[in-house]
Automatic annotation (TrEMBL), chains A, B:
Keywords, alphabetical: Metal-binding, Oxidoreductase, Zinc
Family: Belongs to the zinc-containing alcohol dehydrogenase family.
SUPFAM superfamilies linked to this entry: GroES-like, NAD(P)-binding Rossmann-fold domains
Protein name (database record): Threonine dehydrogenase-like Zn-dependent dehydrogenase
InterPro entries, alphabetized: ADH-like_C (IPR013149), ADH-like_N (IPR013154), ADH_Zn_CS (IPR002328), GroES-like_sf (IPR011032), NAD(P)-bd_dom_sf (IPR036291)
Classification via PANTHER family: DEHYDROGENASE, ZINC-CONTAINING, PUTATIVE (AFU_ORTHOLOGUE AFUA_2G02810)-RELATED (PTHR42813:SF2), ZINC-TYPE ALCOHOL DEHYDROGENASE-LIKE (PTHR42813)
GO MF annotations, alphabetized: oxidoreductase activity; zinc ion binding
Gene3D superfamilies linked to this entry: Medium-chain alcohol dehydrogenases, catalytic domain (3.90.180.10), NAD(P)-binding Rossmann-like Domain (3.40.50.720)
Alcohol dehydrogenase-like C-terminal domain segment(s): 175-285
Length: 340, 340
């Protein structure tokens, strides 16, 4: 089968690899119908972190079940399914508390690679959510978004306690930040401030529910948020980048007693204890437990209430995956969808 | 009047100073009947932070109202009152959200000094809580504890979401840690683990509700908490020290999806973004909004439901304040009460 392999920073290729098979009785194998490139895929693409030779890429996916192991009960061959970027049993104490991304049996799908024609999904019963009916192309695109960026943005908005009467500041105008805007709107936030300086992303932000745009960054961005909120700061801030500047921008934009939801994969971030102490804000973040939200997100998508698939602004056949990475790296695309 | 003044690290004196007067129409002046020495007073005593010449000390107090400004409506001369270590209007948007320690008009009582025969209390209507009836000596001691250590420990336990069915790990066996144990017990926690290696504090911890004692620290302490919780970590952790080791011990002792309440005044702490991200725990801390809890704490104390005054294990007349600081510095006393 064809699969995307990263050989080194900037070196993404599409190659023939072995088609996956059932390895554990709790596995499923999917025929992937759509996958995509994640902002977090850009970190190794740009040379951050360890690189250990050729690596399969991708952790977002929707598809049709092709085979299941003997112990799989909830999912059957032929089902159309969506799963998150972390395979989880969905039954352990951590999963039961809603933190499936830290399941005691977790398997990171990124290590398996879903930018491929087929993918093995461990813990299929816990990981996969069946979609009833036949999704349209637009619905399929939205379901794919639910696999990570929508679910991650949703978690960030929930962690930030976005809701009625709240002003929500969103730091980061990538796909996750945009999805957090959509989530905040759905959760009933009164005012949603997108921190963005790119016209195309500002337009998407407004489409998804942003009421205000702030172009300033760092201290100036914080000052602007304060100005918009009577000097107090936002009730809720979403951090969807993962840098020192973006984390501090989110924390400092939040009023005392407010909440920060941070989901940008953290790179070279160090938080000063005294500054955090004085800020008196709640912090919750990390790898998002997308599985917690998936059933509801599937319902919202299939009933047409939300349209997160609009975040994909470039669609390419898998053979052109390298161009997809390049377009996102150069910010020519917000989020690239790969077809098969 | 007599007041405690710190001239330099280790140099605490009791001196004659001007008796305070009403400066603002929202002020009250109290005759302080009891004050005490706080763990946070030990930081400057030990030479941490800036020292700018002689400074009045103390921010915990109970007493009788001696005078009120023209705009004070809720508090009258002769009232027996308790207030927190932060004067707050209790009406601004931040106060209304329960974060009075970050009131937009906040005044730190530590800058005024309450280890003194009299103290000016700004924003008296917002800051002070009247105690009905005549407190016994034991009740008065408990009310004094409510002024900071009890209220701070309570906030830490609430921030850590201590409650029924929860295992709570408490890092720090000083007065605040001990009060967090009392709070966790009152909040219904199932299991309360005191991390302490001092026999006298272990005994107090058990008295206040600890079900388990862990003597190990750092990685070994974390391993012990994991061992006690089926490998998962505590649901809730309280940090009541303020060092790098104690913060990491609290964060790492907490399971994914769990909550850390941190109230130790942060000194030279730096949190690694990646480690925090992976931990997937909620963090909430800072200067405790004691005023939020004071009315309930006063009721619990006056009805005999809680006995936090037991945390004071050394009582001295104010003239011996220097000995009180020394005893706490040398860990011969957990918490020193000063009488007048």
């Amino acid at each position: 089968m064809r699969a995307v392999i990263m050989h080194a920073p900037g070196d993404v290729r599409v190659e023939d690899v072995e088609k996956p098979v059932i390895e554990e009785p709790t596995d499923a194998v999917l025929r992937v119908t759509m996958s995509c490139v994640c902002g977090s895929d850009l970190w190794p693409y740009r040379g951050y972190g360890e690189q250990n030779g050729p690596a399969p890429m991708g952790h977002e996916y929707i598809g049709v079940v092709e085979a299941v192991g003997d112990e799989v009960k909830n999912i059957a061959v032929g089902d159309f399914v969506v799963g998150s970027f972390v395979a989880s049993d969905n039954t352990c104490e951590i999963c039961a508390a809603g933190f499936q991304s830290r399941c005691v049996h977790q398997v990171m799908m990124g290590g398996i690679g879903t930018q491929a024609e087929y993918a093995r999904v461990p813990l299929a019963d816990g990981t996969l959510v069946k979609v009833d009916g036949e999704p349209t192309d637009a619905q399929a695109r939205s379901l794919l978004a639910a696999s990570d960026v929508l679910g991650t943005g949703w978690f960030a908005a929930v962690a930030a306690e976005a809701g009625p009467g709240k002003t929500v500041a969103v730091v980061g105008d990538g796909a996750v930040g945009l999805m957090a805007i959509l989530a905040a709107k759905h959760l009933g936030a009164e005012r949603i401030v997108a921190m963005s300086r790119h016209a195309d992303r500002q337009a998407l932000a407004r489409r998804f529910g942003a009421t205000d745009i702030v172009e300033e960054r760092g201290d100036e961005g914080v000052a602007k948020i304060k100005e918009l909120t009577g000097g107090l700061g936002a009730h809720s801030s979403v951090e969807a980048v993962g840098t020192q500047e973006s984390m501090m921008q989110a924390i400092q934009s939040t009023r005392p007693g407010g909440h920060v939801g941070y989901v940008g994969v953290s790179h070279d971030v160090s938080l000063d204890g005294r500054e955090l102490f004085i800020s008196t804000v709640s912090l919750l973040g990390g790898p998002a437990p997308v599985r917690r939200f998936l059933p509801d997100l599937v319902d919202l998508i299939m009933s047409g209430e939300i349209d997160p698939g609009a975040v994909f602004d470039l669609t390419l056949p898998i053979e052109q995956a390298a161009e997809g990475y390049k377009a996102m790296d150069e910010r020519r695309a917000t989020k690239v969808l790969l077809t098969f």
